[in-house]
# Entry
Amino acid sequence: MTTLRIPASSPYYNLGAYTLPISTANSNTQVWFNRGLIWIYAFNHGEAVYCFNQAIAYDPCCAMAHWGLAYAVGPNYNKPWERFDQRDRLASAKTGYEAAQRAARLAEDKSEAESEAEVGADGASSTRLKPWEKAVILAMQSRFENGRPPKDPSAVNRRYAAAMGRVYEVFGNDIDIAVLYADALMNVTPWALWNLATGAPAKNAPTMLVKPVLERALLQEGADKHPGLLHLYIHYIEMSPAPDSDRGLDVADKLRDLVPDAGHIHHMPTHLDVLVGDWKKSIESNYKATLADDRYLAMSETRGLIYAAMFAGQQKTAINAVARMEKSVPSWEGVLSIRSPPLADWVENFLATRVHVMIRFGMWRELIGMDLPHNQRLFCVTTATTHYAKGLAYAAMGNIEKAKRERFLFHKSKALVPASRRAYNSKALDTLAVGSAMLDGEIAYRQQKYKDAWRHLRRSTKLDDQLPYSEPWAWMQPSRHAYAALLLEQGYVEQAAAEYRADLGLDTTLIRPRRHPRNVWALIGYKECLMRMWRLQEVNEIEKDLREALEGADIPIRASCFCRLDAAETEDEVIPTDTKPRQRSHRACGQRDKERGSRL
# Structure
């Protein structure tokens, strides 16, 4: 099929100044190639395919344009071979193999290139390939050895990484070669470079091979302006024991606005922002990402903005971002009905985001009045999450029977969720298991069955902690916030304080990515714990962070979770929103479970 050629001078996204000169005499091909490679560096491989096809249309004999097409259709850090559906896998393997073979033939056969260049006389290709071009084209043959999907993707990934390693040995001073090699290494074990529990490199991961490649490249001229290098370094360091290193934060700041219309590039620095508790920067960069995404649709950047706003106590920002995300797709049902690729498996969970926001901000009445999706089988995660949220709302407002009814409907709808449905790097069923334990705990708490409540809430927290790393986390409000709030309400001050300390990262109880420094919810709870234990010096130590966090919030915050009885409204009364300390009831003041014959 002939590609309709679009002049590079036509209106297009602003992708910044990055360029990689290749062997072509056609200026359109050079510009489209640059765009394709930038999109790859920004993890937008679909748009990269379009750009490389445009480059080929203008110069069919440009070997590097065919190399770029092969690179773009292959596996990547966010989409390894295992996440391709069968149809997508077959098409990508075929296209990648043909493009890689075409690049190799053009690199080897000057006579063929010259004869075809005469056909495209408006822009003949230079056939004198640079040595590094020949090298990366040869390495690409290791990724696509035939036109069929690999039977052993891991073995293919390692062969390709080894091939790029040989290229790096010769051209290691070239930043792009370093980036391509590091990318090949990281795709051997994507999202699994580090053992989160120990902070050591993961078993069988090439983590310590990646490190010197990226660090050497960062010292080279032009590193500060290279989107691929800066992007990969953030992915390398974010799950490490030290995501807050000066080098990492410096890299994040350099990347922020480097590719103006690539939302994911704006978003990437926020992977580190949230790990160091810089919620303001995270909101600002994610907002810019959503503006870029208004020009090119994406979802994760918007959810990143929502996540940061939730931790910062900015209800309006979070709700507005949810509305924009929901409106960004004219027909969600039409999109989710596409079976190849299976879009429902990948993006349906985004529609449950509104529910998580409403829970975070205690919007119990609104949740109770919320409509369920019309097509509950297609929108199965959203349906199950909505029933979960309604159950929490009824429990918080003291209507136990209706809460139990929603729990029954939650489990009924959860049974319709296929195992293939995803929530970022987690399975949707695993995230719903967190909610299941949480709902059991909340209902038991309202029934004053405190021993059962603590058991369920601890389980929810454990399941939450065990979810695979993703940014943002698939479960958007830490279960620990609810557990600690209710512990504190029942007078278990020291236990609640321990949970808050862990969440804030004031000790090493939790793995590094599980800590949420300087978040307003845990700070407000921790301060109350310290005050009630008369640890006033420690109160002074967190006072500045808390004051700044409260100034950034757009709602009054009195507890780490609105499920706490004195922070929630009941069906008979709306709790006033003043923030002054109030005389607490005997229940809120710490009537211990042991008085009711139960223990933690």
